[in-house]
Amino acid sequence: MTNSLINETSPYLLQHAKNPVNWYPWTQKSLTLAVEEDKPILLSIGYAACHWCHVMEHESFEDQVTADIMNRRFICIKVDREERPDLDKIYQTAYQMLNQKPGGWPLNMFLSPEDQLPFFGGTYFPPDARHGMPPFKVVLKRISDHFRQHREELKEHKQQMMAAFSSITENRSSSSTVSLANEPLELAASALQETFDPVHGGFGGAPKFPHPTNLERCLRHAYFCNNEHTAKLLLELCRFTLNRMSEGGLYDHIGGGFYRYSTDELWMIPHFEKMLYDNAQLIPLYLNAAISCDAPEMFATADNTCAWVSREMQSAEGGYYSSLDADSEGDEGLFYIWQADQIKKLVSPLQWKLLKSRYKLSGKANFDGQWHFHALKTIQAVSKENKLDEAAVEKEIAEAQKILLQARTSRIRPGQDDKILTAWNGMMIGAMAQAGDALGKPEYIHSAERSLAFIRKYLWDGSRLKVSARNGKSQLNAYLDDYVLLARGIFELLKVRWSTDDMQMLISLIDSMLEHFEDNEYGGFFFTSDDHEKLLTRLKPDADDAIPSGNGVATQILLIVGHVIGEQSYLDAAEKTLRVLWNSINHYPVAHGSLLSALETHLSPPEIIILRGEESFLETWRKLATQSTMPNRTVLAIPSEAGQLPGLLSSKTAPEAGVLAYPCHGTICLPPVSDIDDFREYLSGLRTED
Asked: Which residue has the higher pLDDT, 171 or 323?
């Protein structure tokens, strides 16, 4: 027996297609059915790698008695939050309004049939009375009865809910009266230092998330601020946290890549799902910190994560998959954990000795009677303890990890959500491009190019994007995040190798974003397009969450590309966004890392270096200009034969021989440089004019 989800492509929805619950997808047909039958809607939102979503499915949605209540009293609609972040954002916001606390997944909201306004909501509901919560079956009956018996009351409640939505979507500041300044940058830096955990790294206590946008804020503020003491503190905060994360159980020491979050403050035991978007943010963070924090060991972490992405997360056609489940064979983490005897039988006696020392694989095991790898001693300490050279210790441990990885391939793998999402692919395109360049591994750049080729083929029609693709089917009108994260990924790819076609696609993405998402009256960008399905409200998200804010990324890319091609309308739209969102930024700066980065770029216009010339010489000049981490410097190396260059780029002509460098700071440009020694002087800050 199957329900209406059987015809969907989302792996998450398909997981529920054989439930006895009569699930529907979110469509006009299912919404109309709720009106016709005058039943409230039970809207259940989750995603394929969500552990507690699986738990609730097994306990309640697979239970016939519970399903009978749901089917009799509600129209039940299932939503994959990764395909429908528009719905997820709206109803997570509603949950916070109703419950005065953050939500999560699974999210279960109860809606009025005629307008889809929520009147009650929760996250995970247990099947039996537990932790002060009533059984889900009791909750269902009470809500259904309340809906029947208190319709007039609910009308008043809905008016209050609509007023609350209106209050968060109205224009929040007058762009003409706002003065953009650097105070929020200082406040964010102070807040991050105050919440920093000096013992274990990271911010706050358990559960502990990586918060890549916060760590990026630390790196950027350390670069831009004029206080040497503050800069040193922020760099050390970042170095310490990133090393604790990669030494800890948050990182997969055998196969590479990071898990979603740590369940404890030690970074020891993670929630074992692996998300594409987490790793797409952590790869460039480790690459940049390796240089900024003088921590070359971080290059290996980034490299191993990229290797995992290439090996396990990229389809044959090039698109990157979305996630790996936390569970396998019904148990969380089972794929990743080990018995000590299993390890001992697979590796050499020396390797076992070194592994046991580094990961303390003796005594009481750290996860359900088995071991999850969490480094408790540094390579240096293990080397000293065993009277071996550090390089020899590293080599033996690396060989042992390869042996264990090979052995792990014979296990039953966690489920994989193999849908390909435009926004997350955009993030990984940028990460792999940066990694290929920084690590000298062109195969990672090629991996990024393959993903972009997939998007061109399946998710881009030349002017508009789709959200996701799976099994040859592309669907759903794309969101702001799809446009801006893909645009940023393409720009990162352009920085490591030029393609006029990619530059034209980038400009088309930006222009489409301005046409369909910009709030032309006040400024800023809505999450959904002007031709999107009409929902409860049209949000304009400003704060970062698990991924950077769409408005933050949009403003960054408008500023950089606007300066590169000399497009004033891009710069104006970016400034207008900062002004309209200024109250939010100023009220809680630390939650707006992406917009703070855009503010920095606005206040300190970027240095743009355009290189034109023979391809055989260009790479030497490009490497000179990119050998240090400078977040305000953008370098584009464009071969002589490249044509159809947009805007100001068309005026940067190539020489007959050699290379010409065109350096600019914002809108102020210096004379071109043709001698490589003069270029070195310019880069070192010695040469400012002819």
From this structure: 323
